[in-house]
Amino acid sequence: MFYVLSEKFSLSQEVRLLLTVGFCGGFTTFSTFSADGLMLLRSGAYSSFFLYSVGSVILGIIAVLAGMWLVK
């Protein structure tokens, strides 16, 4: 919502990043992950999008498993 509104009102790139990544990212990291993925898709960086998406999910799962292992 912030991303589209900031684009509609022609806000600067810094303000757009503050609203989308900073503010929304404080509530959920998934919104940041999705915005970054969309940015890669829009720029035509399909291989980077694939590596970013798959890498983030796999590394996230590995991090959870490592955390569980460390606590045991």
Would you give an account of this structure?
It is a single chain. By secondary structure, the chain is mainly alpha-helical. The chain is flat, with a radius of gyration of 15 Å. The protein is built from four helices and no strands.
Topology:
Blueprint: H1 2-8, H2 13-27, H3 29-42, H4 46-71
Overall pLDDT metric: 86
The portion of residues forming beta strands comes to under 5%
- What about the largest sheet? none
Percent helix: over 70%
- State the end-to-end distance: 41 Å
Number of helices: 4
Total strand count, please? 0
Q: What series of H and E elements makes up the topology?
A: HHHH
Shape: flat
- Which class do the helix and strand fractions yield? mainly alpha
> What radius of gyration results from the CA coordinates?
15 Å
Short description:
The chain has 72 residues and is mainly α. It has helices at residues 2-8, 13-27, 29-42, 46-71.
Question: Characteristics of this structure?
Answer:
4 helices, flat
